[in-house]
């Protein structure tokens, strides 16, 4: 039997386009906000010593107890406030499943992480973007007004924001947390570079959910994210979180990294120094406008044609992210901070292309 499969697909899925990122087989990849350095040798050795203990014929610990204990020690939050996700994307989807029904709205500043809108639309929800100002910040008054007019159930705030790189005004976020009568999700995926957080606010506000990720600091290939939330919210997440959503290897490697974080901390320190150097070098070019960053990437606008520079960099073996499809990000590119050698090659290709 052959049938018309398209007739079976829900309309809200038909209207979507898949999340796509250009790839480069050979060359330097500075497009995905990853840590450019491999896991430290100390971590690899400690992990190798544990390999013989793994019972890979058995299911992983569904409660991720060892990993939760390591996170609890690092964050100061008890295990009953923690839930592990297969990346933070999974937790975003679960939160929408819990708190939203078909047609409900979610609110977020714009531009921001594309998956908030993409996941919501795929679930038949209404994404409500609130435009950022010229400094890539927002006013709580505007966000709350949009949320009220659409009877929104959740607000998503990326802190620092991707792709703009900056932390939003803390006072404006505080106002949203205190006044929004729904769930406020603070996506702190880049926390380790900004070193700012709203975790301490959780004791006073049970509507606050903080998301974190290990993808940006060296474990992107293992897909480990976690949420810190009120125990009630954690309980609701666990009702629909798929069993064994975090595998044995990811749990063990992530736990080891968090228990001996100093080698990764040193890598982060190098990335932050390189970020400042990269921003200074780019800012010196008259055809580039560089925006301040609190994360491990830099957003910049190209005078003239951003796509041309993107393609020239690709031809030179350097892959960055072209964001020009968004109307507010016309001619904008985003570059992840790489190693010193990678950054030097990127800068050399930029100079060559813009000469």
Write the layout of secondary structure elements.
Elements: H1 11-14, E1 28-29, H2 41-50, H3 65-75, E2 82-85, H4 87-99, E3 105-110, H5 114-122, E4 126-131, H6 140-149, E5 154-158, H7 170-179, E6 183-187, H8 191-194, E7 208-213, E8 225-228, H9 231-240, H10 248-259, H11 262-283, E9 288-290, E10 297-302, H12 306-315, E11 318-319, E12 321-322, E13 332-336, H13 340-354
Parallel strand pairs: 1-11, 3-4, 3-5, 5-6, 6-7
Antiparallel strand pairs: 2-8, 7-8, 9-10, 10-13, 12-13
Helix pairs in contact: 2-10, 3-10, 4-5, 6-7
Rough shape? globular
Q: What is the gyration radius calculated from CA atoms?
A: 21 Å
CATH overall fold name of the largest domain: Aspartate Aminotransferase, domain 2
**What is the percent of helical residues?**
25-40%
Strand line-up in the sheet with most strands: 2-8-7-6-5-3-4
Taken as a percent bin, the fraction of beta residues is: 15-25%
């Amino acid at each position: 039997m052959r049938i018309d499969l398209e007739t079976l697909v829900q309309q809200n899925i038909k209207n979507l386009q898949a999340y796509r990122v250009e790839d480069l087989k050979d060359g330097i990849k500075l497009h995905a906000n990853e840590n450019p350095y491999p896991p430290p040798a100390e971590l690899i050795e400690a992990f190798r010593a544990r390999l013989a203990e793994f019972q890979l014929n058995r299911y992983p610990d569904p409660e991720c107890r060892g990993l939760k204990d390591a996170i609890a020690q690092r964050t100061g939050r008890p295990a009953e406030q923690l839930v592990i996700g297969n990346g933070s994307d999974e937790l975003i989807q679960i939160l929408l499943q819990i708190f939203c029904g078909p047609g409900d709205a979610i609110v977020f500043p714009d531009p921001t992480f594309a998956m908030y809108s993409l996941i919501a639309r795929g679930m038949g929800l209404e994404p409500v973007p609130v435009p950022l100002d010229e400094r890539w910040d927002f006013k709580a008054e505007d966000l709350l007004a949009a949320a009220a007019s659409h009877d929104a159930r959740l607000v998503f705030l990326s802190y620092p924001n991707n792709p703009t790189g900056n932390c939003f005004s803390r006072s404006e976020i505080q106002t949203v947390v205190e006044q929004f009568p729904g769930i406020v999700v603070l996506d702190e995926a880049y926390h380790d570079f900004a070193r700012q957080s709203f975790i301490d606010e959780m004791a006073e506000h049970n509507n606050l959910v903080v998301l974190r990720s290990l993808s940006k600091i060296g474990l992107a290939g293992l897909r480990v994210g976690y949420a810190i939330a009120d125990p009630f919210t954690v309980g609701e997440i666990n009702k629909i979180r798929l069993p064994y959503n975090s595998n044995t290897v990811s749990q063990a490697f992530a736990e080891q990294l968090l228990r001996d974080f100093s080698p990764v901390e040193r890598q982060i320190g190098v990335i932050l120094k390189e970020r400042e150097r990269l921003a200074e070098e780019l800012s010196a070019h008259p055809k580039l406008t560089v925006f301040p960053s609190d994360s491990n990437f830099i957003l910049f606008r190209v005078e003239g044609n951003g796509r041309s520079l993107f393609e020239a960099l690709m031809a030179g073996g350097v892959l960055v992210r072209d964001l020009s499809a968004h109307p507010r990000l016309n001619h904008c590119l985003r570059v992840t901070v790489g190693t010193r050698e990678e950054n030097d090659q990127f800068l050399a290709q930029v100079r060559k292309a813009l000469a």
